Amino acid sequence: MGESMVDFYELLGVRPNATLEEIKSAYRQRALKYHPDRNPGDKAAEEEFKRVSEAYQVLSDPEKRQIYDLYGPEGLSSFDVGGFGGFEDIFSRFGDIFEDFFGFGRPRGRATRAQSGADLRQPVTLSLEEVLKGVEKEITVERRVLCQRCEGQGLEPGTSAQACSTCGGRGQVTQSRGTLRVFTTCPVCRGAGSFIPHPCEACGGNGATKEERQMQVRIPPGVDTGTRLRLRGEGEAGRYGGPPGDLYIEVQVTPHPFLSRRGRDLLYRTELSFVEAALGWEVIVPTLNGDAPLAIPRGTQSGEVFSLHGEGLPDLKSRKRGDLLVEVSLKTPTDLTAHQEELLKEFLNSEFREQSLE
Questions:
Q1: b or e along 256-284 (b: 16 or more beta carbons within 10 Å of the residue's beta carbon)?
Q2: Dist. CA 150–CA 158, nearest whole Å
Q3: What are phi and psi of 204, to 5 degrees?
Q4: DSSP character for 334?
Q5: What is the pLDDT of residue 283?
Q6: How far apart are CA 80 and CA 162, in angstroms?
Q7: Residue 247 has what pLDDT?
Q8: What integer best gives the mean pLDDT of the chain?
Q9: Are 326 and 285 in contact (CB under 8 A)?
């Protein structure tokens, strides 16, 4: 992250609910204003150019933007945000944006520069019992892997790529528009800077092939729906020597037939008759470790909650377990027999008599 704590929306001059197109448009205006070709030698303009590029880097990415909206800049600590090595770094990341918006930028060099592989996402479904103890799951991941025949180069072994004669291998052609240099994608090699006369027979020149891989993934105790586990380097292969992407395991916890989740606590609802509640009763509570007895004291009211300590779920970080909460509701009978009605009337009359004696 950059040193500045200025609000990214304020930096680009957009509202917090701005659309992606509005964010792109705002970045276009500011990047054009502070572009190094328009401000040669101006250090302040250079820093502002980096700052607005950092803001665009976050707000144009839905995942980073959501985390920024929830937690601010501190929430982005696990992402590669900012830290641009220089203008060439910015142009290489947002080259297409510059071309689309302005028709100019910096020469991006050959398209065969190292490119990171794509990240992958894999859903995994767990039961509450699996959440309690953690579990190993076997998953099948389809991904692009480095072609073994050409080692990712896309070339048939023994052959080589040839430089594009139109752009001289740069991938872009240059024009002048006033004081600005204009770089556009080479129309012949389409930005590659070269062409492959003999593509690899195994991958068709892509440098990668499709693979289905079965993996054993350890899911720790305490995860919840929405938890994402990152497996570094298990995504798709990079290109031209770039690193592989990551694999994200996305957890979905299925509902339990008797228990509902409240963070690390569990909730169980049980019904008692008013007689059981008045006299006290023992109920059997289905916990994740098996059935457990719970003594309900006499005089319990509807809505009261009792706790089985340590029978909840573990915290993902501390592993400390929550409680199992038992909420009592009273059930009013609707099909009394004549004898039961007489008993209840007698009970009601006895209450009146006792109240009159007080």
A1: beebebeebbbbbebebeeebbeeebebe
A2: 9
A3: 70, 20
A4: S
A5: 96
A6: 34
A7: 94
A8: 83
A9: yes
What percent of the residues of the chain are helix, what percent strand, and what percent coil, each to the nearest 5? 25, 30, 45
pLDDT of residue 86: 54
Number of helices (H), then strands (E), belonging to the chain: the values are: 9, 15
340 Cβ neighbours under 8 A, 6+ residues apart: 333
248: three-class secondary structure by DSSP: strand
Among 28-42, 104-118, 250-264, 339-353, where is mean pLDDT lowest?
104-118
Determine contact, residues 247/120, Cβ cutoff 8 Å.
yes
200 CB-contact burial (10 Å; exposed 0-12 / middle 13-18 / buried 19+): buried
Name the residue among 62, 68, 87 with its Cα closest to residue 9: 68
What is the C-alpha to C-alpha distance for residues 99 and 187, in angstroms, rounded to an integer? Answer: 14
Q: How far apart are CA 219 and CA 225, in angstroms?
A: 12
Pairwise pLDDT comparison (119 vs 84), residue with the higher score: 119
Q: Which domains does the chain have, with CATH numbers?
A: 1-106 (1.10.287.110), 111-150+208-254 (2.60.260.20), 260-357 (2.60.260.20)
Highest mean pLDDT among 99-113, 175-189, 333-347: 333-347
- Residue indicated by tokens 């054993």: 216
Phi, psi of 278 (to 5 degrees): -70, -40
Query: 282 by DSSP, 3-state: which?
Result: strand
Of 141, 147, 122, 121, nearest to 212 (Cα)? 141
In angstroms, the CA 62 to CA 64 distance is 6
Q: pTM of the prediction?
A: 0.58
**Sorting pLDDT into bands at 50, 70 and 90, what band is 46?**
confident
Residues with Cβ within 8 Å of 118's Cβ and at least 6 positions away in sequence, in order, are 144, 235, 236, 245
The pLDDT value recorded for residue 142 is 92
pLDDT number for residue 130: 97
> How many of the other CB atoms lie within 10 Å of CB of 336?
11
